[in-house]
Fold this sequence. Notes:
mainly alpha; 78% helix
Amino acid sequence: MALDAALLELVPRFGYALVFILGVLEALPLVGIVVPGHATLLLAGVAASAGLLDIRLVIASALAAGIVGDALGFYISRR
Length: 79
């Protein structure tokens, strides 16, 4: 199996989790400088347009990641 085919098989399996994790990390103070959250959302949108991901779940994952990341960043900053 070629590497590109193997990577394409991973997108539907881990795509939503990757959007969520990188979105949370991007919202954290200082960590967000090095985490490519916007690029992740762009690639998730491309994957959704190709039929590999559901755009509604991509939006829900990104929304949840932003809320959780902001709340976590606020909590960390308050301590």
